[in-house]
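Quick one, tokens below:
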């Protein structure tokens, strides 16, 4: 039997079932393309839980092009992460000339040359500010961090620094500030490895040459490093407010400038205090000392408060220091989280009730690897790029798929309710009309 061509003006018949399935697939694709859009659960921008990752920050008259510089990440309003990771970050930018420079990753080192024993060109940094699914904020920064003086080299270098702040509840606030190594410049111009400060105690290296004044005179500085312990220890271009309670971690470096006596540095190999030559022993063992206030003893300069504008000796020329010129504050790798005092975490939608047997864990001895050195183990952003992620898409997608499936099935069943006999009679009448 020859195949009868379709009647002019007719169109192929598509089943109602196929139409419903197509609608279902299209709607599901749209849902997956915009996860969480319908079920977003944001926190209040002004009063809700908040986390910040303050990678680098500085404040002082010698900073260029602004007396206040900072690189700050904020946690998203919906559960997720704001992440920045890369090989190098510099404040101010490399094209800007200034007396001081802050750096993360390879930029932590003066002219990309890290202290002896630190592999060159391998440092990285990673910063993340997170709002967890239960609305608890956390922040973490890892990597090499440093402060340099343009004309005199490295002042402070932190290797594999790790800072982390977590606000699980208003009464469960934790902070961690550590590093694998710390290098500090001495008055004789040498960069030495020293012990990390103990707790919140300051560690001061006095009379360090750091530059020249506008009239050509030499500047010496007291360099003090300590752990950040409270919100007021931080400096930023934008003020950071507490929601009620907070946890803070990180490093703060204060540089207090004096004019060298007669505008000249000592030429007899001393530190300018009359206390003899600067020790060249093993500073990292804690044996180096000079009048009880050099970095090797793990103590700050007697009677001084970092950044208070007074210094260790009050700017007395008899102590090798002229008048106070300026003070500068630098923050390296600060992590901050804050919540309201009555904050209550939401139930974690990703938590499971299945119990897991306890398995003994072996903790390796020795220094731990910097997480920033192994980016493959973490969600990785492009070098120097900031990315944000939203809530977990799987529960939202499954819920949306179930809703769409139910709706599509109802449409299909309704269309199938049309009497099959009526459809066959309609098709027969169309064929007879064509034959006539």
């Amino acid at each position: 039997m020859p195949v009868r061509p379709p009647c002019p003006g007719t169109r192929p018949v598509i089943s109602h079932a196929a139409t419903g399935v197509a609608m279902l697939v299209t709607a599901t694709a749209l849902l997956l393309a915009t996860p969480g859009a319908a079920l977003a659960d944001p926190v209040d921008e002004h009063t809700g839980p908040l986390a910040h990752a303050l990678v680098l920050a500085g404040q002082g008259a010698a900073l260029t092009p602004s007396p206040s510089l900072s690189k700050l990440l904020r946690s998203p309003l919906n559960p997720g992460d704001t992440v920045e990771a890369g090989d190098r970050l510099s404040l101010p930018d490399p094209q800007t000339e200034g007396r001081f420079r802050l750096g993360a990753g390879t930029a932590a080192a003066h002219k990309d040359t890290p202290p002896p024993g630190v592999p060159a060109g391998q440092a990285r940094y990673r910063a993340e500010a997170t709002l967890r699914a239960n609305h608890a904020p956390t922040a973490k920064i890892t990597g090499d961090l440093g402060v340099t003086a343009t004309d005199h080299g490295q002042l402070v270098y932190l290797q594999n620094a790790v800072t982390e702040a977590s606000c699980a509840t208003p009464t469960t606030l934790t902070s961690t500030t550590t590093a694998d190594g710390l290098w500090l410049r001495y008055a004789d111009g040498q960069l030495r490895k020293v012990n990390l400060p103990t707790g919140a105690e300051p560690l001061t290296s006095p009379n360090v040459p750091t530059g020249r004044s506008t009239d050509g005179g030499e500047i010496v500085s007291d360099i003090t490093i300590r752990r950040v312990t409270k919100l007021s220890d931080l400096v930023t271009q934008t003020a950071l407010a507490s929601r009620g309670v907070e946890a803070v971690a990180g490093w703060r470096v204060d540089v207090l400038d004096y004019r060298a006596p007669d505008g000249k540095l000592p030429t007899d190999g001393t530190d300018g205090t009359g206390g003899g030559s600067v020790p060249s022993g093993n500073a990292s063992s804690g044996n180096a000392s000079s009048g009880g206030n050099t970095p090797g003893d793990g103590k700050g300069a007697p009677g001084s408060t970092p950044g208070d504008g007074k210094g260790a000796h009050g700017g007395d020329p008899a102590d090798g220091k002229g008048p106070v010129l300026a003070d500068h504050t630098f923050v390296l790798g600060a992590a901050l989280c804050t919540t309201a005092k009555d904050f209550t975490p939401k139930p974690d939608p990703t938590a499971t009730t299945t119990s897991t047997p306890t398995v003994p864990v072996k903790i390796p001895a020795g220094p731990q690897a910097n997480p920033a050195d192994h980016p493959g183990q973490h969600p990785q952003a492009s070098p120097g790029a900031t990315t944000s992620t939203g809530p977990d898409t799987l529960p939202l997608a499954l819920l949306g798929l179930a809703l769409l499936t139910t709706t599509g099935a109802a449409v299909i069943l309704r269309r199938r309710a049309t009497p099959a006999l009526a459809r066959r009679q309609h098709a027969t009448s169309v064929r007879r009309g064509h034959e006539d």
